Amino acid sequence: MLRNSVETFLQRATGQGVESEMVYRDLEIARDVQRASFPEPPVIPGLTVASFYKPALCVGGDYYDFLPFRDGAWGIAIGDVCGKGIAAALVMANLQGSLRAQTWQPRSDLERLMANVNRLVWESSPQHFFASLFYAEYQPQSRILRYVNAGHNPPIVLRRNHNRCALLPLTAEYAPMGLIEDCPFTSTTFQLEIDDVLVAYTDGLTEWENSEGTAFGHKRLESMLADCCSQDPHLVLQLILDELSAHSADCPQADDITVVVMQVEAPGEGMENIISGFGRPEPPLIRFCIGQ
What we know:
globular, single chain, Phosphatase 2c, domain 1
């Protein structure tokens, strides 16, 4: 059980000498395992994807994933386990495994999928751990996004409106995963349009404080995105990280940070550019991988 794994690790972490060295080696291995668990940049028809992830410690509790279905649809997930470090990473791995296991089955309704994942997280995680999760299923042909937001920061859809972007939040309507044993879910349908940009993030972005103790904040993020007329997800992501770097300067990172930016493309508009990476929000920001 995950609960036993967390308790065992915490007991070893309080040891001295050889035990402490073993903990450090385990953390290094856990970091490598967690990096490997994040998805390779996907080629999603009609989408360009840019992503950034940086844990506050060696490993973290943030999560994002892209899950292909046999009928051509794609599952898109971003989540955040309460807390950080090895315990949050273990719960994150449990959430990831539970969600992937559900999507390997014949595709059922989204509400049932979320209820099953919620129950699995509830049953296998320590009682004081839970996770916010935004999970959506995207149909490339129709550009329809069906989603459930379980306690996560609302992803924002940017839609060009003259010289500014209209901000359309995909709001949270349900409790985080694993907080309530039997939580009913209802999905929401959102019609994406060509050139829409979807920005999803975890609260490590908006809660990073500067030297005066002021958080980056949702209002600053929204104001910046409203003025962002670029439809290129790489440039949108770069702008977000540049603003965050200027705000936080050399202040320590207190929480894990994940940002995923996706642009809707016109059919047949050339190959999809996939950009992803791990790094600090200062130049060089992202390790790029361009996929075809």
